[in-house]
Design brief:
Layout: E1 11-17, H1 19-25, H2 39-50, E2 62-65, E3 70-72, H3 74-83, E4 87-95, H4 100-105, H5 111-115, H6 119-133, H7 143-152, H8 154-163, H9 172-187, H10 194-210, H11 217-226, H12 232-242, H13 257-266, H14 270-276
Parallel strand pairs: 2-4
Antiparallel strand pairs: 1-4, 2-3
Helix pairs in contact: 1-3, 2-3, 6-7, 6-9, 6-12, 9-10, 9-12, 12-13
């Protein structure tokens, strides 16, 4: 089998790319770079560039094949255009266009990035899907299933996104409690008062628990039980939204965990469970 000969040796160097040049580079895309537009990623990169926080010393090259098509750097170049500021990148030109798969496979893509959603939203979607899958393992969440969960809980996820404090990467406990809130919101979809009350409960937990060391779910349960806190119902859902299979070790502390999971699966999650299977 003949080995395809490299037309030219790739050449890499540091370049300062201005918005007009970035826009020009974006007119020629490798076929597999088409339809990869992530508005959230572009906005985040552009904000960092505008505020002067972009790490220009990290060598993640802008990569261009020997036909002058862009292979890697689509979102960063779009961010340069959006921010309207010049940015310094390491640029490699003259690559084999058939090497795109190898290039893309080594770049870590989070569910949030691949699905084009916030990290907080992705964490809640993962947690909700875990409840649907229980007692089976969820495995790696793909964008198709994430989109299904997002569509199913769009109203509740939107409400949480608007009314809870913005955050970057959620601590595990916070993500579980947020997802638990979403499940309870769906269960009380026709009640006008429960949603604001849940937000207030979360704010209380945020101030009393999450601003210090990350509590275990069992410790958080003990605290709420001791204080007779009204967020107990939310927490019961969030135990399973966090990681339902893990809580077998807490059976003595939470007697009805399996009952709670089955209740969620047979009520607010019935249709979603059927689709995800």
């Amino acid at each position: 089998m003949a080995i395809k000969k490299q037309i030219t040796d790739p050449v890499g160097k540091w370049e300062t790319i201005h918005p007009k040049e970035a826009a020009s580079m974006l007119t020629r895309l490798h076929p597999k770079q088409v339809n990869r537009h992530n508005k959230t990623a572009i906005a985040s990169y552009a904000r960092q560039m505008t505020e002067g926080n972009w790490r220009q010393d990290i060598v993640n090259p802008i990569q261009i094949d020997w036909d002058n098509n862009l292979m890697n750097g689509y979102h960063r170049l779009n961010a340069v255009v959006t921010a309207n500021v010049p940015v310094r990148f390491y640029v490699v030109r003259g690559l084999d266009p058939d090497g795109f798969g190898a290039i893309d496979d080594i770049v870590s893509r989070s569910l949030a990035f691949r699905a084009g959603i916030t990290i907080a939203r992705a964490a809640m979607i993962n947690s909700i899907a875990s409840v649907c899958a229980y007692p089976s393992s969820l495995g790696k969440m793909d964008t198709t299933r994430a989109s299904v969960v997002d569509d199913f809980f769009k109203k509740e996820l939107d409400y949480v996104g608007v009314n809870l404090p913005s955050t970057g990467k959620l601590r595990v406990t916070q993500a579980g409690v947020r997802a638990g809130m979403v499940l309870v919101m769906r269960e009380h979809a026709n009640t006008t008062t429960i949603w604001p009350e849940l937000i207030n409960m979360y704010d209380h937990l945020l101030k009393d628990q999450f601003t210090t060391t990350t509590p275990s779910m069992a410790a958080l349960h003990s605290y709420l039980f001791r204080e007779r806190h009204p967020a107990m119902r939310v927490l019961m859902a969030s135990y399973h939204a966090f990681s339902p299979a893990k809580w077998s070790q807490n059976r003595l502390r939470i007697q009805d965990q399996l009952k709670e999971v089955k209740h969620l699966q047979s009520t607010v999650l019935t249709d979603l469970v059927a689709v995800l299977k």
